[in-house]
Amino acid sequence: MTKDPNCAYCAHGELLAKFGIYICDLTQTRLYLFKEQSHPGRVILANKDHVGCITDLSDEERNAFFADVAHVTKALKAAFHPGRINYGAYNDKGVHLHYHLVPKYEGEFEWGDVFAMNPGRVTLSDEEYAAMIEKIKAAL
């Protein structure tokens, strides 16, 4: 596997701990709970290898990546019952392929708008994060 020691998703250290909590490995990705939970159930799927773009993957790897996206989307729908799930892939600052999966709830915060990257509105206790992670794992 290709790794970059300066990348949060590769190093799994303090930089990652500032914004995410590891949940599990999937076929092509690693799943993280996003600490800022204005949208309950928001997660990040990061490719296991350090690649910068979806076009850097082979056809098989790309298909596995999107199969993981679909699998987690189904789990988030089952666990949290959002009205919709938004997907964000930003590659201009962090050059490690990752997707934000953001459950959106009709009539609530940012419905109908693009989600804010880090609105800083909702953080949880360690116990609440653990309960949310267990809920996601149970639905995977």
Mean pLDDT comes to: 93
Using the coordinates shown, work out and report the CATH topology: HIT family, subunit A
Helix content: 25-40%
Integer-rounded radius of gyration: 14 Å
The description of the largest β-sheet is: 5 strands, antiparallel
Q: Number of helical segments?
A: 4
Number of domains: 1
Strand fraction = 15-25%
Oligomer: single chain
CATH superfamily heading: HIT-like
Unreliable spans? none
Globally, the shape reads globular
CATH class: Alpha Beta
| SS-based class | alpha+beta
Q: Give the neighbour order of strands across the main sheet.
A: 1-2-3-5-4
Distance, first to last CA: 25 Å
CATH architectural name:
2-Layer Sandwich
Q: What's the count of strands?
A: 5
Order of helices and strands: HHEEEHEEH
